[in-house]
Amino acid sequence: MTQLMGRPILEVPGELGGRPLPADLLAGVRTALVGLAAVGVPVLGLWVATPYADNGAAGATRLAGALWLLGHGAPLVRGAAGAPLTVTPLLLGVLAVVQLYRAAAGVAARRGPRPRWGGPVAVWAGYCAVAVAVVLHCTGDGLFRTRVLPDVLVVGLVTGLATAAGARSARASGPVRPLLDRLPPSLRPSGGEAAVRGAALAAGAGLAAAGGLLVAVAAVLAAVVGGGRGAAVLGGGPAALAGLLLLGVALLPNAVLWGAAYALGPGFAVGAGTAVAPAGTALGPVPEFPLFALLPAEGPGGWRWAALLLPVLAAVVPAVLLGRAAAGRGRPAEPAGEPGAAPWSPVATAAAVLAAALLTGAGAAALGWLSGGALAGGRMAWIGPVPWWTGLAAAGWLVLVAVPGALLTRHRALRPAVAVPGVAAPGDGGVGDGGVGGAPLTARARLAAQAHRGALLVRARAYAAVVRLSGPREG
User: What per-residue confidence (pLDDT) applies to 139?
Assistant: First the structure.
């Protein structure tokens, strides 16, 4: 009792107490420092392993801070000429966003009173305080330099969006319901919000898998028949090679998205006046970088047109998901009290596919924009896919494949079962009833019944042949 009375009541976690403001601020600071350490430890390790390093420890820390800021999408300046660098290593960006999302969700989930500016706002403030310190540290001389105001604004915006998403994660809300609510009642797929979101996610995952497959095939071809492309990167020593490989791993999600844009058809650019697409490749001089060694050789497309089959395969799963949802499978029952969800009309099914295509196209355009940027000035002012072309291609492929696929799946799911000749009709209580309580036979059950009847007939004929060959019985 003395211990309970001696403890301040506002410090008790749970319903009676809240989390103090300094604790939330420190949560944001800790989140930023963890992400900064994930970038700084490899950079400092390479600096230690590099013999005769030109820069000291301050230069290595400035490089680590600049890469950490670049992972948030902050624009940097490279070299003495001040060339812009805006290509975001998406692996570092995903790491930062996931950490912020989890930290904000954890703070927002705690119950009890908190200060007005506590909670996710304090997490955001603590994270931004570390970002401001890193920006100021990287303003000096070095290979990469920051621009204070744009970098602070970009990091603050990205941090605010990730923190807000984590704080609102308990409420499941998305852009699908308002989009479907705008349709007339006769064309609206009732209860289809979850199905549309699932189809869009499945389409995005399929396109990402297609991009990853193309990157893997390009890596194998470069290793087998590459003809020594990219061999110049081996001349910098083990430490330089390790640094390039680590940077390539950080840019691997960018390469996967570029591969997805290639499979969709529009492709991507590696500088002004260049094109890398299934229709053909036109390249000029490209920087010596391991990922650039995976680019296809210049010339017409030829067999590379086969890459267009990958978006077709990626749209099969969304078509099946929406077709099953259109038939009432995997959806909740209607409020009127029917035993199952009412099927959608063909027009409502097509509307659901269009909604999923809009979400997929918007996501593809946004990711295409995030994966590209400027590598330098002049010719390398933009590398990566064209965002709006990539979004249109993703939406178009999904509509082209998923609309007939979803309608076909819906038709097959709603088709009534046909009785099998020689099998008891549904509802007569026989052995060949096809299901419990006289339920109609499904296609698999019909095939099983026919196979069983054929096996019995073959066995009976074989037994009759054996009896005839054995001759008459005695007695």
Answer: 86
Angle between helices 90-109 and 148-167 in degrees, nearest 10: 50
pTM metric for this prediction: 0.79
- Closest C-alpha among 394, 408, 247 to residue 326: 408
- Residue range 159-211, pLDDT digits in tens: 999 999 888 874 544 555 566 666 666 667 777 788 888 999 999 999 999 99
Residues 144/138, Cβ–Cβ less than 8 Å: yes
- C-alpha to C-alpha distances, 336 to 22, 183, 193, 238, 347, nearest whole angstrom: 52, 21, 19, 70, 22
Q: How far is CA 28 from CA 22, 77, 130, in A?
A: 10, 27, 9
pLDDT (0 to 100) of residue 362:
95
Place of tokens 């099946």: 320
Nearest to 261 by CA among 385, 401, 363, 395: 385
Residue 357 contacts residue 398 (beta carbons within 8 Å): yes
Considering all CA atoms of the chain, what is the largest pairwise distance in Å, rounded to the nearest integer? 114
CA atoms within 13 A on the CB side of 471: 2
Residue 258 sits at φ, ψ, to 5 deg, of: -65, -40
C-alpha 117/C-alpha 122 separation (Å) is: 6
CB 322 within 8 A of CB 349: yes
8 Å CB contact between 207 and 263: yes
C-alpha 372/C-alpha 253 separation (Å) is 11
Cα 28 from Cα 188, distance rounded (Å): 43
What is the tens place of the pLDDT at every residue in 433-464?
Answer: 444 444 445 556 666 777 778 777 877 777 77
Selection from 59, 60, 66, 55 nearest residue 42 by Cα: 60
